[in-house]
Amino acid sequence: MRAVVCRSYGPPENLVLDDVPEPVPAPGQILVRVHTAAVNFPDVLFIEGKYQIKIPPPFIPGNEIAGEVIAAGEGAAISPGQRVAGTTFGAFAEQALLDASQAMLIPDDADFASAAAFGVTYRTAYYALRSTAAVAEGDWVVVLGAAGGVGLAAVDLAVAMKARVLAAASSPEKLELCRRRGAEATVDYDREDLKTRIRELTGDSARVVLDPVGGQYSEPALRGLARGGMFVTLGYAAGTIPTIPLNLVLLKDLYVRGMEIRTFASDYPDEAVRDDAELARLFAGGTVRPYIGARFPLSETAAALRHVAERKVLGKVVIDVA
Ligand SMILES: NC(=O)c1ccc[n+]([C@@H]2O[C@H](COP(=O)([O-])OP(=O)(O)OC[C@H]3O[C@@H](n4cnc5c(N)ncnc54)[C@H](OP(=O)(O)O)[C@@H]3O)[C@@H](O)[C@H]2O)c1
After folding, report:
1. What does DSSP assign to residue 132?
2. Atom 28 (ligand 1): residue with closest C-alpha?
3. Which residues line ligand 1 (CB under 6 A)?
4. Which residues of the chain carry a pLDDT beneath 50?
5. What is the rounded distance in angstroms from the CA atom of residue 85 to the CA atom of residue 246?
6. Could you tell me which residues are beta bridge partners of residue 209?
7. Rounded to the nearest whole angstrom, what is the distance from the C-alpha of residue 148 to the centroid of ligand 1?
8. Separation of CA 212 and ligand 1 centre (Å)
9. Nearest Cα to 315, choosing from 83, 146, 82?
10. In angstroms, what is the span from residue 224 Cα to ligand 1's centroid?
11. C-alpha to C-alpha distance for 14 and 82, rounded to whole angstroms
12. 25: CA distance to ligand 1 center in Å?
């Protein structure tokens, strides 16, 4: 089968499209003919050897797929022919393995691209909104990087939870997309004073900040929170991990929390089961569907990753494999 291979750590342009052996499902696994793979920011870090987890090259990058089951390992409760989506390793390939117990059956009215693009970003955003920050109807939620993958998922889900969304991003085009998805207020944080605008636009009542960006944006966003508000750190797409003066937390009795998708289910098993079930209902009912901002063929995976690395993402970037 054809697969994108990272032979040594480096930029997207070092990736090669190669012929590799087809994977064989172990017990409990299914083999999927990949129709669509979705790109996530960490894919760029993985191939550069800069992610928290390091996969020794050579490896096939990519973590999210949707496709059709073509073989099932012993004991896998999903049969060939079914349409599934899920997270795995080796997504940027014509075939990939999934743990059957982790696979989501794709509802009839959802296409492969929506299903592939749903998993990582919507779970990240929902765990953070629902369980970490316990967002309630009417709460003001400030989302940084709001037109990106995690950001736009957070906008969609906060709107579905009837929260009030202030979307912060770096261009008029990105903010327009956030407004179309239901954000009530927007701030261009490269041209406006983020702290001041959060306070003005929310009437000094921002209860939650969701931050997948880090860098220079975190501190002003935290300063914009209302007394007793919560700052949730999710990632550092800006490339730097900010340092926050603790007196800011003390003076306004703030909460600062993190949420990590890889450890959430083991740290909070009951919440993870509940949140996954609620998310699946939101997806199946069509209440939330990811916005696909760009599509690339498998042969142009490097360009897809470059698109993400250069801050051009609107919603999700996907790779059309078949
Ligand atoms: N905690 C978790 O479990 C978890 C799960 C998934 C992802 N993450 C992390 O969340 C972050 C966002 O992931 P994503 O998939 O949503 O990424 P994405 O789609 O690329 O969005 C990232 C956003 O960050 C902003 N940004 C600011 N400076 C940037 C820069 N120098 N390069 C690229 N983007 C920049 C961009 O918005 P503006 O241009 O509007 O600033 C962009 O839309 C990543 O750090 C990722 O590792 C964490």
Report:
1. I
2. 238
3. 40-42, 120-121, 124, 145, 147-151, 169-170, 174, 212-213, 234-239, 259-261, 308, 311, 313
4. none
5. 42
6. 142, 231
7. 6
8. 5
9. 146
10. 20
11. 35
12. 32
pLDDT of residue 256: 98
* Residue of minimum CA distance from atom 43 in ligand 1: 148
Mutate which of 155, 174, 176, 313 for ligand 1 pocket (most atoms within 8 A of beta carbon): 313
Please, which residues have CB within 8 angstroms of residue 240's CB and are 6 or more apart in sequence?
214, 215, 216
pLDDT recorded at residue 219: 98
Give the closest residue (by CA) to ligand 1 atom 40: 169
What pLDDT is attached to residue 135?
Answer: 98
β-pairing, 206-211 vs 140-144, is parallel
How would DSSP label each residue in 189-250?
A: TTTS-HHHHHHHHHTS-EEEEEES--GGGHHHHHHHSPTT-EEEE---TTS------HHHHH
For 147-173, the pLDDT digits (tens) are 999 999 999 999 999 999 999 999 999
Domains defined for the chain, CATH in brackets: 2-110+289-320 (3.90.180.10), 120-264 (3.40.50.720)
What's the angle, vertex CA 130, arms to CA 86 and CA 200, rounded to 5? 120
Q: Measured in angstroms, how far is the CA atom of residue 55 from the centroid of ligand 1?
A: 21
Task: Name the residue type at position 170.
Answer: S
pLDDT of the residue at 155: 98
Protein residue whose Cα sits closest to atom 36 of ligand 1: 145
Residue 52: what pLDDT? 86
Question: Quick one: which atom of ligand 1 is closest to the CA of 213?
Answer: 24
pLDDT of residue 241: 97
Helix axes 149-160, 172-180, angle to 10 degrees: 30
- What residue type is assigned to position 136 of the chain? A
- Give the distance (Å) from ligand 1 centre to CA of residue 317: 12
What six digits make up the tokens of 55?
Answer: 């996969």
- 40: Cβ contacts below 8 Å, ≥ 6 apart: 63, 64, 120, 121, 149, 308
